[in-house]
Amino acid sequence: MSLPNTLRTSITPPELELIATQQLIEIIPLVSMERTVFISGVYGPLRPPNKAKVPLWIAVNLKMKRKCHIIAPNWLTIEYLQNQLALETSNPAFSELPFRYMEISKVLLDVASDDLEQPDKLRSLLKDFREARQAKSREGLKQLDHSELSLPNLSTMEINEIRPYFVEAMSILSRLALPPPRSDV
């Protein structure tokens, strides 16, 4: 989203993607590796054709070197996304998806589209999903009052996008809700 510098108080999308690469994901290794110790944990051993769970950043690194196949998360399938999109467009509430679904799906579609079922259809469904959720966010912000905003099931990227507007709007609403200064003097 393109914002003026005065509203850029949020984390950038690439930074959110970097944070999301800590999520564990399943891979099918194509090479054997012993247990490897990282600051974030111990992963392995990797033994083809057995599945292994590793952080997304390791999976991406191995995939780029053609040393693994990445297994799509159960929520990154056409059937699941179609069902969730139907729920999203028929209910006023946000449907439930993983907290970092946007970042993870972008990384996987960029790096491992050959491991995903119909990646173009997945991109299209994710785009439709995003548009439906943005419309709900805009509608929710129109009904904002100074005391609270409840938008459960938003993802990190969606929260990050509305944060600058929300903070400014809440500040203005709080000032408007204050009682007028007394003039007893």
UniProtKB/TrEMBL annotation:
Its main location: nucleus. Keywords: Chromosome partition, DNA replication, Nucleus. It is found in: Nucleus. It comes from the Eukaryota. Residues 12-71 form the DNA replication complex GINS protein PSF2 N-terminal domain. SUPFAM superfamilies: GINS helical bundle-like, PriA/YqbF domain. Residues 75-175 form the GINS subunit domain. Pfam families: PSF2_N, Sld5. Coiled coil: none annotated. GO terms for cellular component: GINS complex. InterPro entries: GINS_A, GINS_bundle-like_dom_sf, GINS_Psf2, PSF2_N. GO terms for biological process: chromosome segregation; DNA replication; double-strand break repair via break-induced replication. Component of the GINS complex. PANTHER family: DNA REPLICATION COMPLEX GINS PROTEIN PSF2. Belongs to the GINS2/PSF2 family. This is DNA replication complex GINS protein PSF2. The lineage of its organism: Eukaryota, Fungi, Dikarya, Basidiomycota, Agaricomycotina.
